[in-house]
Structures are given as C-alpha cells and as structure tokens.
Amino acid sequence: ESNEMPAAGENQLLMVYHRLPYEIREVNGERKHVPPTSPNGIIPSLMGFFREGRSGTWIAWEEVEKTGSQLRNIYIDEEKYPNLLAGRIGLTKKEVELFYKVFSKEAFWPTIFSFIDKASFNHDHWDHYVRINRLFAEKTAKEADYGANVWIHDYNLWMVPGILRQLRPDLNIAFFHHTSFPPADIFNIIPWRGDIIGSLLQCDYIGFHIPRYAENFVDVVRSLLPVTVLEEQNCTERFLSYSCPLGVEKMPRLIEAGSRKVKLGAHPIGVHTGYIKECYEKAQRRKLVQQLRDQVGENKKIVLSVERLDYVKGPLEKIYAFQEFLEEYPEFHGKVELINICTPPAKGMKIYEKVQQELEQAVGKINGKYSRIGWTPIHFFFRSFPFEELVAYYAVSDIAWITPLRDGLNLVAKEYVAVQGLKEENKGVVIISEFAGVSVEMGYALRTNPYDKRSLKDVLLQAILMEPEERDMRMSRLFDTVNYYDIGYWSNDFMQEMESIKSLQYHF
Ligand code: GDG
C-alpha cells in the first residue's frame, strides 16, 4: 500500500538501439527518412510499442561531419507515430567505425562466441568505446521522465547501464543480448570484465535468447563477486534440456549481487510470420519459386545455406564437409545441389577478408573438380537478395543446412520454417547446429555438430533420405512453435517482464 505518485515516465519507453529505425536516403537530391528493410521484423515490432499508448524516444547514432555535432530531436514518422521521437547522437564516420566495426568486432564479437584466439584488446579503443557509451547514457538520461522504462540492446552498449544508473537512479533499465553469452572462463579474458559486469548489474532486467546464456552470465558474476540466486525457474516446457548441448533444466531468474537485485529472463527472438507469408504469396504470384525449381530441375535435392559472411557461422567447415560428402557418395552427383547465400559484411570490416578469400577458393576448387554440364555442386552467391527472393529460395529448398559454430539464436532457421510450414505437403527439413541458440527450441529439427565433419555429412544424408511423411510431421510441429513464438510474442513478453520490475524496484 504505497502512496507514491505514479511515476511521470511510467508510460514512457526509451529504446536504446545502436541503429535508428529508419535509413537516410537521397531522393531527388533531398535527404529522406525511409523505414529500413529488415526482414526479421525486430524494428517494426519495437516500433509497435509507440502505437500502443506509450510515448518515447528512440536513441541511436547518426552520421555527422564533425565530432561533437549536436542533432536536435526529430519525428521519425509524425503521422504514424505522433508520440515517438528520434534522439540522435551525432558520430563521425571514423567514430562509428572504431566503436562498431573495429573495436566491438575485434574485442567482443570473438569472445562472445568463444573464438578467443581471434580476440584482441586495445585499451585506447576501449576508452573510445566507453566514451561513445557515455554519449548514449547521457542522451537517455536527458530524454527520460521520472521512472521511465529504458530498453538497451546488445553488447555495443554494455557500458550504458552503469553510467545511466549514476545519472538517473530512478529509471527502470532493461538490457537484451542478441548474441550468445559465453561461459565464465571465456568471458573473463576481457580485460574490462569487471567494468562490464558492474555496468550490467545496474540493470533491473537482463534478457538473453536462451536459459543457458543467463546461467553463463551468473557464472561470470559469481567469478567476480559473491552472488545469491533468489529465484530459479524450470525451463523444460519451451526449451529442450536433454541431449541438447545448450539445454539446461533450470535457470536463475532473480539474483542478488553487490547491493543489487537483478531479474533475468530468456527470450528467444521470433520472426514476423505475417510478413513472411505475404512475401511467400508474392513470390508465388511472381512464379519465383517455380522458376527456381525449373532452373535447378525437378529431380534434384536443393540444400540451402543462408548466412552473413562470418567465421562464427562456420562457412568453411560446411563447405569442406560438403566436399567430403561428394567424395563419399558419388551416387548423389548430379542429384544434390548446395545453394550458398552469403551476405557480405558491412564495408570496412577487415576481420572478414581472410575468411571470404578462403571460402571463394574452396568453392572454386570443389566446383572445378566435380561440376559437369547441367550440374554445379555449389552455387555460391556472395551478395544479398531482396527478401522476397530469399523467401523463394526458402520455399524451393528441400533442406536448410544451418551449421553455425556458434549463434545467439539464428533467425534463418525460423524464417525457413515460417515459409516451409505454409506448404501443403512435401515440406523441407531443417538441419540446425547444436550450438545455435535456436536449437533448444527446435526439437523437431535434425541437429548437427558443426565441429565434426562426420556429423555434418551423416545428418545431411539423413535429411536427404527422409521420407515425406516424416518431413511433413516435423515441419508442421516446428511451424506451430515458430508461428506462436513470433516477433510480436518476443517483444510483448520482454516488455511485460521489464514493466513488471517497476513494482519491485522501490524495495531494492
Ligand atoms: C544476430 C545474432 C540472432 C540473410 N541473407 C539475406 C538476408 N538475410 C537476413 C535473414 C535474417 C538475418 O539476415 C540474419 O539473422 P540471423 O539471426 O540468422 O543472424 P545474425 O545476422 O548474425 O544476427 C543471431 C540475431 O542477431 C537476432 O537477435 O538470431 O544469433 O548473431 O533475418 O533473413 N536478408 C535479405 N537478403 C539476403 O540475402 N533481404
């Protein structure tokens, strides 16, 4: 029975995302804001909150010419979102590159995914990172009303909660990790581990894709300071816990560390099934799916791989396994084709150059050795397709071969299911890496260990040979899950959890 006044910021949401929810394009010589083309629907879904009576500011960087340039707040789309402003942090191209493309990708990205040999730690770059994080925190502090909700996204902004809490003890701060969260002995190679964990503990709520990452997080905290788990939750219902390397039976839900109580949650992200259905129907009307099928030929199995170029996705391991597959099973020559869509990384990311070279070489070698008129074993596309076309590839493929060495979740698997589940029959098979977060949600997929060529080859063979009845049964069940736990579910669930903390925080 508190007689506290409702907080002024109770219905206010500050979305702290490194990217703005629009792109700036030159249209007839004029700078125009256009919605980004993001198929997974994260941005539209987050935008949705601002149509449900919440007001707020979306905080992100925008490129400016000169360091320190101030940008005023603007409407993103005044008609559609009259209660939403863009709070822009002006950063120069150089500042962004160092913060996002160099430091975050050299120090944090490899560590997060347990590629510790690839990690490098530059202290000057870290100072720059903290400086940029401070700008985000200061901007948020300036925009927030008393008791407002703040939702911060991803490891690029790890230091924001700590700085923000100092500036604004009243705020309800939540954080979501789009990546994995590694085990303690991996995370702790980061020289600034204490600063990062100290900052994260200033959150009220921290979300991860899957329970295992929350458990890893608590292990890291435990390695740095005493921690008590106050609440735990069984996670057998939605998440696999047996014979699944990323599965856990229980996860910590409320912890106490230092003087802080922090709630934790698992929120595997979803896809926008409605939008994907629309794209599928359009692709059908344009006869894209049939065209692809005609080009490949009726009697061939299409194996599809879609991923950003990144060593974390294990592209080479897959290609070499495919090579061995061809060597071992000559009966499939001319009958199985691998379509490999590899989206190039953003310009300026040097760390990906080597893997690109090696990949192109390997594909060239394999095709040179095996292809014949009418059959090329690997179709390698080092480019990005419009989403509708990607959907046509999803629809036409018999197998999605998704084999990252590590992945926070993996949306490609869910998009494939969202498309294949719409088919009446002759549905495809999903092969998913045991080390992609999504594998704990996909009991009806075939799981593979991408570090083991034997496993890659055997599971591929199993998928090729699977009977239509089994394929349809598995895919229908997968579709039910993907359709239910869609992107709307993800964002609402997270929002509900973070808003429920508010009643707790006064007692902390
Ligand atoms: C990070 C985490 C986590 C790919 N090729 C094309 C294209 N794509 C789109 C897909 C999909 C997206 O890119 C890739 O999403 P993933 O989830 O598979 O992987 P990351 O990019 O690494 O994302 C990951 C995710 O964040 C969300 O939290 O799941 O674990 O690493 O949506 O459709 N889109 C188009 N053309 C292409 O050629 N239009």
UniProtKB/TrEMBL annotation:
Enzyme's top EC category: transferase
EC number(s) reported in the record: 2.4.1.213
Highest rank taxon of the organism: Bacteria
GO molecular function, one term: glucosylglycerol-phosphate synthase activity
Keyword line: Glycosyltransferase, Transferase
UniProt record similarity statement: Belongs to the glycosyltransferase 20 family.
Record protein name field: Glucosylglycerol-phosphate synthase
Organism whose genome encodes this protein: Flavihumibacter fluminis
Lineage of the organism: Bacteria, Pseudomonadati, Bacteroidota, Chitinophagia, Chitinophagales
Gene giving rise to this polypeptide: ggpS
